[in-house]
Structures are given as structure tokens and as C-alpha cells.
Design goal:
Blueprint (H helix, E strand, L loop, with lengths): L10 H14 L7 H8 L6 H9 L3 H19 L4 H7 L5 H12 L3 H7 L19 E6 L2 E9 L6 H14 L5 E8 L12 E8 L9 E5 L2 E9 L5 H16 L9 E4 L12 E7 L6
Antiparallel strand pairs: 1-6, 2-4, 2-5, 3-4, 3-7, 6-8, 7-8
Helix pairs in contact: 1-2, 3-9, 4-6
């Protein structure tokens, strides 16, 4: 799936193509699937790439562009606010009025009367966060045994506690490798209570232990970011991987979820010495 003129992995052009689509079609389909199609990118990873490159989620960008378009129409045209509301994708004028007032500090009618200046659109995140080493390596398939977590990804620690308790109670550690976290869903596309992840570890034997669930991670090429430091740095690691390394790498992400490998334990390791690998599947390079 390659859009004409985008090249294999020109992320800036992909980003600008999506922003142009949002600006030119404010009342159109703004689903993540549609925006991923416009970018010709993996649906698993497009939202992370967009956020890391712009500092916004796709939903935030859509809202901002729609309201920016509405502000311009209010200043340049005589159409009624209700008409402008529909023209920028808000079917409910009250919802439009609330969103507009939240963004511009005035109702659409008052804004038009004031003739307030409209700031230019943001298109790219400014500045750089911390950098982390990234390598590309061939990974074997892995079978993960673990506990499924449903809900906010930030609360997966509860599932890890349950997993560790089962392992201790049943003497499972000799059958398991390093702990692994897998994140299956797009947090922009699903409500937080419906997000699915897994807290587990690599299985050294074929049979998944009772009371645990199994999941197979496909083998292949992966970009692996190594993060040294406390776990609260992990979001910055994702930003560096998706917002800096990936756009400069010439690589494209594959259609599979990321996973994290925890190489040591917070029980006997200082926070600054914790080692985490963030593994991003890569698409196969064309022959």
C-alpha cells in the first residue's frame, strides 16, 4: 500500500498528506483507519508516529483543524454559525459551540464580532526529547504466557502483580524467561476500559501453564530501543522511537503490536539501572 509520490518511508510527506486531508475535508471521515490509509501506514502504529512527530493525537489534530477552519469561515464569510458547524464536521451546533468556546474563549457569534486573529496551524513538533540507542535485529517467534489486562495501559502493573503471584505460587519461573508486556489495541480507537494488554513472560516450554493465557509473537525484523532508567521514562522511549528514529531510518512499521522486554527486576535493581527493550516490528524490505 503506497501512495503515489510518497516514497517508501518519507514520514514528513505522509504527515503533511494527512494534515492536508484533514484541512481539505473537515466534514469527512476522520476515523483512524481513514487517516492511516491517507498516510499509507500500519494501523497498529500510525497513531504513535503521528503523536511522536506532532505532539498531538490524531483526534486532537482533527479537532484543532476543524475549529481553525471554523474560525476562518466565521471571519471571512457570512454563513450562519450552524452552517459553519456542519461544514467542519459538527452535526450538533451545541457541541460545536462548546468546543469552539473552549478553543477560542468566545462563542462563535462573539468571536465573529470581535474579529480575533487566528493563529497559524501547527504541523510539526518542535524540539527533541532524550535519545536512546536503537538497533535492528532479527527476532525469533516467542510464545508468551501471561495474564490479560483490560483497561488503561498505565495500570498494567496490577496484571503483572497477579502474574508474578501465580508464578511464585506454582513454581513457574524455571519454565519462563524475561517478563514481557504486550499492548494489543490503539488507545485512540478504543475506549480506555476496552484496551487489551498482557503481562507475562516468554515460555521456555511448549505448554502454557494452567491459569495463564498464551500469545505468540511473530518472528522477523524488529527495531529495538534499549532504555536504561525508571519505567516512567518508557513513554519518552516510544516518542524517541516513533518520532525520531523511525522517520529517519527509512524503515516502515509492520502490522503487529509492540512489546516490551524487562531485562532486570525492580526488586533488586536501582531505578536508574533498570533495562527495558521496546520492540517495534518492521515491514520486510522490498526485494
Amino acid at each position: 500500500m503506497t501512495k503515489k509520490g510518497l516514497g517508501v518511508a518519507n514520514y514528513d510527506k505522509r504527515l503533511m498528506r494527512v494534515l492536508r486531508y484533514i484541512h481539505d475535508n473537515p466534514a469527512g471521515d476522520m476515523s483512524l483507519d481513514r487517516l492511516a490509509d491517507e498516510a499509507a501506514m500500519s494501523r497498529f502504529h500510525w497513531h504513535r508516529i503521528f503523536h511522536a512527530m506532532t505532539g498531538e493525537t490524531c483526534a486532537q489534530a482533527v479537532r484543532r483543524v476543524r475549529l481553525h477552519k471554523a474560525a476562518c469561515l466565521l471571519l471571512l464569510e457570512d454563513a450562519a454559525p450552524d452552517e459553519i458547524s456542519r461544514a467542519v464536521g459538527y452535526d450538533n451546533p451545541r457541541s460545536f459551540g462548546r468546543a469552539f468556546a473552549s478553543q477560542y474563549g468566545a462563542s462563535p457569534a462573539k468571536f465573529r464580532k470581535q474579529g480575533v486573529h487566528v493563529a497559524p496551524l501547527m504541523t510539526r513538533k518542535e524540539g527533541e526529547g532524550p535519545m536512546f540507542p536503537v538497533s535492528v535485529r532479527e527476532e525469533p517467534p516467542r510464545v508468551i504466557a501471561g495474564v490479560v489486562h483490560k483497561g488503561a495501559y498505565s495500570r498494567i502493573g496490577t496484571a503483572f502483580e497477579a502474574f508474578f503471584g501465580l508464578c511464585e505460587a506454582n513454581g513457574l519461573w524455571p519454565r519462563l524467561g524475561n517478563p514481557v508486556g504486550i499492548y494489543f489495541d490503539n488507545p485512540e480507537a478504543k475506549p480506555e476500559p476496552d484496551l487489551r494488554s498482557m503481562a507475562g513472560a516468554e515460555l521456555r516450554l511448549n505448554e502454557v501453564p494452567e491459569d495463564l493465557e498464551g500469545f505468540t509473537i511473530s518472528g522477523g525484523r524488529y527495531a529495538v530501543l534499549t532504555l536504561r532508567g525508571p519505567y516512567d521514562l518508557i513513554p519518552q522511549g516510544y516518542d524517541a522511537l516513533f518520532g525520531k528514529w523511525l522517520p529517519e531510518s527509512g524503515e516502515m512499521p509492520g502490522d503487529a503490536p509492540c512489546f516490551e522486554i524487562y531485562l532486570n527486576s525492580p526488586l533488586d535493581t536501582k531505578p536508574e539501572d533498570l533495562l527495558t527493550e521496546i520492540c517495534l516490528p518492521l515491514a520486510e524490505k522490498p526485494a
